[in-house]
Amino acid sequence: MRIATASYPLDVLECWDGYAAKLSGWVAEASSNGADLLVFPEYAGMELATLAGPSVAGDLEASFRAVSDLVPEADALHADLARRYKLHILAGSAPVFDPSLGHRPVNRARFFAPNGAMGIQDKQIMTRYEREVADIVPGAPLRLFDTSLGRIGVLICYDSEFPLLGRALAEAEFMLVPSCTEALAGHSRVRIGAMARALESQCVTVVASTVGTAPWTDLMDVSVGKGGIFCPPDTGFPATGVMAEGQLDEAGWVYADVDPAAIAHVRRDGVVLNRAHWSEQEGRAGPITIERMG
User: Fold this and answer.
1) How far apart are CA 259 and CA 247, in angstroms?
2) Domain 2-272 adopts which CATH fold?
3) Which residues fall within 8 angstroms of residue 220, CB to CB, at 6 or more apart?
4) 145 neighbors 110 (Cβ within 8 angstroms)
5) Residues 113-149 pLDDT 10s
6) What's the maximum distance between 2 C-alpha atoms anywhere in the chain?
7) Is the peptide bond between 287 and the residue preceding it cis, with omega within 30 degrees of 0?
8) What CA–CA distance (Å, rounded) separates 267 from 234?
9) Residue ranges per domain, the chain?
10) Partner of 113 at 20 to 30 A CA spacing, among 17, 28, 75, 292?
11) What is the mean pLDDT of the chain?
12) Please, what is the end-to-end C-alpha distance for the chain in angstroms?
């Protein structure tokens, strides 16, 4: 199978047809290059706010509501593209007001299969900006998607930096990590987290990034990052743990070919068996004895 992960710039959209044309073009390009699984980044859906005009796009709260209102239409477009091109697509996440989860928005990614099925994954742990400025809240718990490509989990950006969230998805062959980071340090944290999750769970992790500037929104006025596809540095995989990476802040798709059988093999008979040996930490990680050494 071939994975395509996006280094994705946000645009000011003049009309819905412009958004549909942009998204369709990205999907068509990935499909023409043989991709089976497409991953768009965190908050890529925020460009929908520009359809409501600059005053709404520039107002954080108003933009959240404008985007949330358009998510059903965006979902219909993604579902149509997934069916048409026979692809699995993780749509760029967006703020969504879900009445079942309270009165504040969650950061929600939506996952589409070629057969028309759709699943959702909400972000679990909020960054300081999300909790202190934007008042975006944690959403519904983690899910695992059982697909024709294998089992797929989603850890949205900051979530990838927490080992227990990764461990909860240890049955996944693929962990998708849509991200939005404003500085190289932030991108590095997500990249390191994704590589650590690939090591621990002996799986493939896929980072998608927003790139470039969007001066009309305080949420992501500057984005620094690049798409990347990571693996356990073990039998059948690159020794660096890096299958593919783009160039920093350069828009476009990043591709890697993955044999799911290689994941099964390394879990069963790798040089190391991190995933199987995880439970051996219990009882050895504490309580810690502090020894005074002078």
Assistant:
1) 24
2) Nitrilase/N-carbamoyl-D-aminoacid amidohydrolase (3.60.110)
3) 10, 43, 46, 180, 182, 210, 214
4) no
5) 999 899 999 999 999 999 999 999 999 999 999 999 9
6) 71
7) yes
8) 10
9) 2-272
10) 17
11) 97
12) 57
